Automatic annotation (TrEMBL):
SUPFAM superfamilies for the chain: alpha/beta-Hydrolases
InterPro entries in alphabetical order: AB_hydrolase_3 (IPR013094), AB_hydrolase_fold (IPR029058), GDXG_lipolytic_enzyme (IPR050300)
Keywords: Hydrolase
Protein name, per record: Alpha/beta hydrolase
Gene3D superfamilies linked: alpha/beta hydrolase
Oxidoreductase as UniProt keyword: no
Keyword Zinc included in the entry's annotation: no
GO MF assignments: hydrolase activity
Length: 302
């Protein structure tokens, strides 16, 4: 493990996901300790996006608009489909908007177990349609829309790309997948062996999938690694952490995308663990966070 990260491991709460409410409180406490950079000229707005599923509530979003943006990313927070809010994602959305110079639309999707699959995906789907229909309002070009996210949010972003392809949804230019949660089967080497890694381990991943699926059978829109065909998807960036249960399924997904003719940038970060980029004092975390912004800038502004 990177020595700058290792010293922080004893400070992480060693809890399971068995109590979603307690887990959410723990994540909120960790997020509150992350400094939020001051970004000159960044406009932050709150919106509610109309649902696309009858009877579903509107979807809260927080829009980050830096000056001169040409594109936008529908950004989905992590938290194992169980945790996370617009507030816990705020430090990262600010960094992504500042680093990329592009509009970041952070999505406050519904959480499991209260709202199992497909609630979160339906919320993300509604926001993707809203961004495409309101590109002019957001000050961006309609052909410069990406999807992205971290962990469970990365899984949702990958599912969005699949759904947009299969259901002829809005055109997606790029997918930015950081340590995405893609495969409920947990059959890879990293899923089977990382039972005591910091923050996320096999037990927590299993609980996450259990809450998200709610007993239903997984489909490719729930677990994108199950998709038989990855052809015709947008170019992708996939970032993985060495000591992360999701590592091997992410590498496998990247290879499958490549074999299907999809351009992929794959970066395996040595000595890191799932979510360790939140330790912003570490040099490798600074490199990780900067790269996400730089990759998005190149994808949308180029």
């Amino acid at each position: 493990m990177d020595p700058e990260l290792e010293v922080f491991v004893p400070l992480f709460p060693r809890t399971s996901l068995s109590d979603p409410v307690a887990s959410r409180e723990g994540l909120a406490g960790l997020a509150a300790a992350v400094p939020v950079p001051e970004v000159e000229g960044l406009v932050v707005e709150e919106w509610t996006v109309p649902a696309v599923v009858p009877g579903a509530p509107g979807v809260p979003v927080r829009v980050y608009r830096p000056a001169g943006a040409r594109g936008a990313v529908v950004w989905l927070h992590g938290g194992g489909y169980v945790m996370g809010t617009l507030d816990t994602e705020h430090p990262w959305a600010v960094r992504l908007a500042a680093g990329s110079g592009q509009v970041v639309v952070s999505v406050g999707y519904r959480l499991a177990p209260e709202h199992p699959y497909p609630a979160a995906l339906d919320d993300a789907w509604a926001v993707l349609h809203w961004v495409a229909a309101n590109a002019g309002l957001l000050g961006v070009e309609g052909e410069r829309i990406a999807v992205g996210g971290h962990s469970a949010g990365g899984g949702l972003a990958a599912a969005l790309a699949l759904r947009a392809r299969d259901e002829r949804g809005p055109a997606i230019r790029f997918q930015l997948l950081n340590q995405p949660q893609l495969d409920d089967r947990q059959e890879t080497w990293s899923q089977r062996n990382f039972t005591d890694t910091p923050w996320m381990n096999r037990e927590r991943v299993a609980a996450s999938w259990g809450f998200y699926l709610g007993g239903a059978e997984a489909t490719p829109f729930a677990a994108p690694a199950r998709a038989a065909d990855l052809g015709g998807l947008p170019p992708a960036y996939i970032g993985t952490a060495e000591l992360c249960p999701n590592r091997d399924e992410d590498v496998a997904y990247a290879l499958r995308l490549l074999r299907a003719g999809v351009s992929v940038e794959l970066h395996q970060w040595p000595g890191t663990f799932h979510g360790s980029q939140a330790i912003v004092s570490a040099e490798i975390s600074q490199r990780q966070n900067a790269e996400l912004g730089d990759v998005l800038r190149r994808a949308l502004a180029g």
